[in-house]
């Protein structure tokens, strides 16, 4: 219930303060399992896969940390772990059906930092920052 109140407050703040010149509130931690967080994380993962030169696509294995801030929309700043799947890049639209590699030579994990700006009024998102690095196995 508290999470719903935070999300509703954030939505209303975006609607009222849309033209603000700067951040309206400091970043706040948010439940990594919330729908808005997963929507932003999925969007960032698709963005990563579209730009990746890897033959295989990656999918979210964990959302490690996330904060939300009202700043011209709802800004999600998150650290996400991605795992390499057996699905070829550009050929599989449904990440949920993709199985992760487990063999040492094929399995890879990435720790990614994404910043996604979501505009719930226009139902649009955009990437403000994206960086990934290999996780030591």
From TrEMBL:
Alphabetized InterPro entries for the sequence: Cystatin_dom, Cystatin_sf
Keyword vocabulary terms for this entry: Disulfide bond, Signal
Claim: Disulfide bond is one of the keywords in the record: yes
GO molecular function terms attached to this record: cysteine-type endopeptidase inhibitor activity
GO cellular component: cytoplasm; extracellular space; vesicle
Protein species of origin: Atractosteus spatula (Alligator gar)
Protein name: CYT protein
CDD domains, A to Z: CY
Signal peptide per UniProt: 1-21
Domain Cystatin: residue ranges: 18-133
SUPFAM superfamilies reported for this sequence: Cystatin/monellin (SSF54403)
The family this protein is said to belong to: Belongs to the cystatin family.
């Amino acid at each position: 219930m508290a999470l719903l109140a935070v999300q509703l407050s954030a939505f209303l703040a975006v609607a009222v303060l849309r033209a603000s010149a700067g951040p309206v509130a400091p970043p706040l931690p948010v439940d990594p399992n919330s729908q808005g967080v997963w929507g932003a994380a999925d969007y960032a993962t698709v963005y990563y896969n579209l730009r990746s030169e890897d033959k295989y696509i990656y999918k979210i294995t964990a959302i490690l940390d996330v904060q939300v801030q009202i700043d011209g929309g709802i800004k999600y700043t998150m650290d996400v772990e991605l795992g390499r799947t057996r699905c070829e890049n550009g050929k599989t639209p449904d990440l949920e059906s993709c199985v992760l590699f487990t063999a040492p030579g094929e399995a890879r994990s990435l720790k990614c930092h994404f910043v996604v700006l979501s505009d719930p009024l226009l139902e649009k998102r955009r990437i403000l920052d994206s960086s990934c690095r290999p996780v030591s196995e």
